[in-house]
């Protein structure tokens, strides 16, 4: 049990469960599988999955021979399914239906859909029913994704390093592609298809133009071929200055006809190699990347340049809104909105603007990004981070389901109550058909893919929520625990408690009460709230917490940066109110005196220290909880997780001690009674150097 199998772990179910299922799974019928790679893929997954879970593979046959058949077919590929007249109309291109049926007097199950892709998702859902020990005796399930583009974003470089990747090297062996096709590529596609992911951006948003050269396009095409039967399209991050760097032009100005021709030619070349190429992801005029503003053009003009080149073949441009400018005195949290919202209505219809969940940058907790809801005429897609750049990398356990849920369920009030972020992202709020959600992948060459077993849950929950953003973090965690470990009730109870407590614990020991961006220089791992000497103001933790003798927090009300005004009126009013905003985001929006009374009855200083302590206590508790499960888990995964939890408990204390020591030196306050003294002096923490923190 090294974790390689992810949620495709088809270890035998408990004996009793196996015996219940077996009579229902005697025969598998998949008409047309010889002619179709996609159907063949489904057939082999079902044989493998059922065979493993029940320790008996179903017979693959052409005709129904008795009770216990599973028929996987579209109405077109099977007259038997056609005759059932099942309600497939509203299920679109990727939806499916799983239903118990009686055909010619025999009892069985039909998995059907309008397309082979639908059958694929139906097949994986069916396997999930078995993995989660759900009865299939009278099933009637239909499923359909709410969001169109469900993508992973790999921040993988051509030299196999991964930006903010903490699980080894890139899984793409660029050098040996296209000749060598690592079986991992197929397993990657299986794992993604199983959770409904239908696209992948192969390379880093800080892109090298080389990705668009013929040599590298051939490599991308080889991957696209592996992924195709699994319904996964390939996308590329495009460097805006590519026409200059690899095209020999003197400009990349969107208004230049030669530049336009260059992109059209490039798009044609890509589509010759990858007929179902998905499109481009672009980071432009952000953190030193080239972009249209270099030529005095807007983000919309830049996006439309690429969009027009892709349009004839149905490709899309995902244009990122993660921008903040050097020397711009405006609150960093406001800059993306200021740049993009005035452009609403100027983007072509195959452009979608990709917005991070919060206005700064993947912090342990941020309010939802004010752009959600603010651009009625432009489709916006969500960008979540799965890799935990600011939440303890791969080392700490932080289940991100609650964070995704918190953001998706947040109400923007853009069109009155109920205008949730989900409704922006699924297109229903403003009637957009182009919809998407992206997760920055936490995948690498480590045997367990994500650096730890629990990190796999973040990839898993991202996919499940991308398919259905109404799922709760809790139900997905429960499924994941069952699939990953077992159905044991103790394991499920304690595992669930651990997962659901973990993200808030990280918030508490790193950035409690709405603080953000407090990490040390050179990496995003350890504490450095004292840092105030970096070239750009908004790179410094001191810029974010603004702590001094009198108080702490970033005033984003009308008296301060007025970032609250970027939200719809009811949200703005809530965020602007000290008592209304809630303690979890208090210091994100308010600068308050240390003796400000918070909801708990403590003063602000007391609450800050209390939350740091609480985070440390939860991290220690995670260790104890895990140890109580030793008998329920295989030694290999148990041991690795136990060791990582020890790292987390130690580092939670480091975060807490360093931060409390620093804020105490600033506030001049005494530690509240009952809270522990930091183990070392502030100077000690300030002198720590971590030049080799992973992925810095
Ligand atoms: C920040 C990362 C940086 C990324 C950037 C981005 O620190 O490595 O390039 O986001 O999203 O979080 O473009």
UniProtKB/TrEMBL annotation:
Domain Glycosyl hydrolase family 67 C-terminal, chain residue ranges per copy: 451-674
UniProt enzyme class: hydrolase
Glycosyl hydrolase family 67 catalytic domain: residues covered: 130-449
InterPro entries reported in the protein's UniProt record: A-glucoronidase_C_sf, GH, Glyco_hydro_67_aGlcAse, Glyco_hydro_67_aGlcAse_N, Glyco_hydro_67_C, Glyco_hydro_67_cat, Hex-like_dom2
Residues passing through the membrane, by range: none
Pfam families (UniProt xref): Glyco_hydro_67C, Glyco_hydro_67M, Glyco_hydro_67N
EC number(s) per entry: 3.2.1.131
MF-aspect GO terms: hydrolase activity
Family designation: Belongs to the glycosyl hydrolase 67 family.
Subunit structure: Homodimer.
Protein name listed in UniProt: Xylan alpha-1,2-glucuronidase
């Amino acid at each position: 049990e090294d974790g390689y199998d992810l949620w495709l772990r088809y270890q035998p179910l408990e004996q009793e469960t196996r015996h219940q299922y077996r009579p229902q799974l005697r025969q598998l019928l998949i008409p047309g599988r010889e002619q179709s790679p996609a159907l063949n893929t489904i057939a082999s997954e079902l044989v493998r999955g059922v065979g493993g879970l029940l320790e008996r593979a179903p017979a693959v046959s052409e005709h129904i021979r008795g009770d216990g058949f599973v028929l996987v077919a579209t109405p077109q590929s099977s007259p038997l399914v056609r005759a059932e007249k099942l309600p497939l109309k509203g299920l679109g291109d990727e939806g499916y239906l799983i239903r118990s049926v009686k055909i010619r007097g025999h009892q069985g199950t039909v998995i059907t859909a309008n397309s082979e892709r639908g059958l694929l998702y139906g097949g994986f859902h069916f396997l999930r029913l078995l993995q989660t020990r759900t009865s299939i005796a009278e099933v009637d399930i239909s499923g359909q994704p709410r969001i169109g583009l469900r993508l992973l974003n790999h921040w993988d470089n051509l030299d196999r390093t991964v930006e903010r990747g903490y699980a080894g090297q890139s899984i793409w062996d660029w050098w040996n592609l296209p000749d060598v096709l690592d079986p991992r590529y197929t397993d990657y596609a299986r794992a993604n298809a199983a959770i409904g992911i239908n696209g992948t951006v192969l390379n880093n948003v800080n892109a090298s133009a080389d990705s668009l050269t013929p040599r590298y396009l051939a490599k991308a095409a080889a991957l696209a071929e592996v992924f195709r039967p699994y319904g996964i399209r390939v996308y590329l991050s495009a460097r805006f200055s590519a026409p200059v760097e690899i095209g020999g032009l003197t400009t990349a100005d969107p208004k230049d006809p030669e530049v336009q021709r260059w992109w059209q030619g490039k798009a044609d070349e890509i589509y010759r190699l990858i007929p179902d190429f998905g499109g481009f992801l672009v980071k432009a005029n952000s953190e030193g990347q080239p972009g249209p503003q270099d030529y005095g053009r807007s983000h919309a003009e830049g996006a439309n340049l690429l969009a027009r080149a892709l349009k004839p073949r149905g490709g899309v441009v995902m244009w990122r809104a993660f921008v903040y400018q050097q020397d711009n005195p405006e609150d960093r949290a406001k800059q993306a909105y200021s740049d993009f919202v005035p452009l609403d209505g100027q983007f072509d219809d195959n452009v979608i603007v990709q917005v991070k969940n919060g206005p700064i940058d993947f912090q342990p907790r941020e309010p939802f990004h004010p752009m959600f809801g603010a651009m009625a005429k432009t489709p916006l897609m969500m960008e979540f981070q799965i890799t935990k750049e600011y939440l303890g990398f791969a080392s700490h356990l932080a289940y991100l389901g609650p964070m995704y849920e918190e953001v998706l369920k947040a109400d923007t009030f853009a069109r009155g109550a109920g205008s949730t972020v989900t409704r922006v992202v699924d297109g229903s709020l403003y009637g957009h058909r182009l919809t998407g959600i992206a997760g920055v992948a936490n995948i690498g060459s480590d045997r367990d893919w994500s650096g730890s077993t629990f990190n796999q849950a973040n990839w898993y929950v991202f996919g499940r929520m991308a398919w259905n953003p109404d799922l709760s973090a809790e139900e997905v965690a429960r499924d994941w625990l069952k699939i990953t470990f077992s159905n044991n009730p103790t394991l499920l109870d304690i595992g669930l408690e651990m997962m659901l407590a973990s993200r808030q614990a990280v918030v508490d020991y790193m950035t409690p009460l709405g603080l953000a961006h407090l990490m040390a220089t050179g990496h995003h791992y350890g504490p450095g709230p004292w840092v105030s000497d970096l070239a750009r103001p908004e790179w410094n933790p001191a810029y974010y917490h603004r702590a001094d003798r009198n108080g702490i927090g970033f005033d984003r009300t009308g008296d301060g940066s007025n970032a609250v005004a970027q939200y719809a009126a009811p949200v703005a009013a809530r965020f602007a109110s000290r008592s209304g905003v809630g303690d979890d985001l208090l210091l994100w929006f308010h600068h308050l005196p240390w003796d400000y009374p918070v909801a708990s009855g403590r003063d602000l200083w007391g609450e800050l220290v209390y939350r740091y302590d609480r985070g440390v206590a939860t991290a220690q508790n995670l260790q104890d909880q895990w140890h109580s499960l030793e008998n329920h888990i295989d030694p290999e995964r148990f041991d690795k997780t136990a060791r990582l939890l020890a790292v987390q408990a130690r580092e939670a204390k480091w975060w807490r001690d360093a931060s409390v020591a620093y804020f105490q030196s600033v506030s001049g306050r005494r530690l509240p009674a009952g809270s522990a003294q930091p183990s070392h002096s502030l100077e000690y923490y300030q002198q720590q150097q971590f030049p080799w923190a992973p992925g810095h």
